[in-house]
Every structure is written in C-alpha cells, then in structure tokens.
C-alpha cells in the first residue's frame, strides 16, 4: 500500500457516499450523575447508531502511558464506557465494504458479492479523545494512525498538529474541521495548523491508501477524528 498525495478518481466518486463521510469520536454522557461516563459516537452531519461488530477497539491510556482495552456496554446502538481515570481514549471502527453499482447506488457488499460494482471501498475510522492535558497529551503512543497536538490548545491561537502513520510523519494529509470544510495540508515534517475554538473541538484528517490483490475491495479510506476541549 502507498499513500496518495492527491484525491484520485476513486476518491471523487466515493465522496458522495455517506459511508466515507462518517466519522467516529468520543463524547461525555450528558447526565449530571454520569461522572467519567462517555459514549462512542458515529455519524456525519447527524449521529447514527451502528452495529457493535463494527467497533473494533476502544483503548484507554492512563497518565503513565499505559494502554488497556476499555470495557464498554453496548445499548441502543452505541457503546458506553467509563473513562474517568483515562488521559486519552483511542477508537478503531471498521465501516465494512461499500460497492458502487453501475446505477450509482452504494451497497454494503464486497466486490465478490457484487461483481458488477464499479469500485469497492473499505472505510475505516479512527478516533482519539484527549481528556486531560497531562504529560501524555503531546506524545505519540504507537498507534497505526495518530494526530498529536504539539501544545495545549488555546482558543483562537493556531495549534500545530503532528500527523503520523506507523510512527512516521506523513506529508500532504488534509487536516481541518471535516470533509466538507476548509483544511490545511501537512508539511514535510507531518505538521499542519488548526485553530481551536473555545470549548469542544473536533479535528478531522483523511488518509487514502491503494490496496492491491484484495478480492473484496479496491481501496481503503481512512478518516481520523481528534477531539479535545480548549479554553
């Protein structure tokens, strides 16, 4: 697999599909009695429920840098967990395989299941929530993909964000508010600027990979959502 520096025809065709535009992120449970309780959200312009089997991993990072698998409860189409003692939470979500039919319609089937498909894509979503700005917040933690803030965010002040793939900085990755919003590209050092607003922030990034000799899909679309609060 190799990274694509620009959007290719496959990406342009698939951009209209809701499967590609969706993201995954962590939100606190809106209940005064739910201290430390969070929910894994999925969606684009609106949140949606999702099958539990698509949520592949939820990991908790403590203030010493130790990573453990989170225990969560899945109810009413969403995963709920306690992250009261976590500094960060990492999420991996696989949205299946979506194929574009000659009619233009997308169906959740593989290339083998839909031999007439013009293209088939596997959209994978990653989320990272910074819950506490301790010594772990500006470090990388060995994840396959990661966005790492280079300082504690301040509302209205540009923040440098390091974009990594397998621990290495990646150039020309889109970083911004979302797929439909303005973005900056990472430079040679894998750094892009993002200006936080006061309160809860979502920082979106997009990766594209070619996939060779896969019987089920032609490409893998990777979207990432970093969340944090800023003052």
> Cα distance, first to last residue?
40 Å
Low-pLDDT stretches: 1-18
Element order, helices and strands? HHEEEEEEEEEEEEEEEEEE
Beta-strand percent range: over 45%
Please, what is the average pLDDT?
A: 90
How many runs of DSSP E, i.e. beta strands?
A: 18
Distinct helical segment count: 2
Organism: Aggregatibacter segnis ATCC 33393
Signal peptide: 1-21
Pfam families: DUF4198 (PF10670)
Keywords: Signal
Itemize the secondary structure elements and their pairings:
Layout: H1 9-14, H2 18-21, E1 23-28, E2 37-43, E3 55-61, E4 67-69, E5 72-75, E6 78-82, E7 88-94, E8 98-100, E9 106-107, E10 119-130, E11 145-149, E12 159-165, E13 168-169, E14 174-176, E15 183-185, E16 191-194, E17 199-210, E18 219-230
Parallel strand pairs: 10-18
Antiparallel strand pairs: 1-2, 2-6, 3-4, 3-7, 5-6, 7-10, 8-9, 8-10, 11-12, 12-13, 12-16, 14-15, 14-17, 17-18
Task: Please explain how this structure is put together.
With 231 residues, this protein is mainly β. Helix content is 4%, strand content 45%. The chain is built from two helices and 18 strands. The strands form three sheets. Strands 3, 4, 7, 8, 9, 10, 14, 15, 17 and 18 form a ten-stranded mixed sheet that branches. Strands 1-2-6-5 form a four-stranded antiparallel sheet, with no helix packed on it. A hairpin with an 8-residue loop joins strand 17 and strand 18. Mean pLDDT is 90; it is low at 1-18.
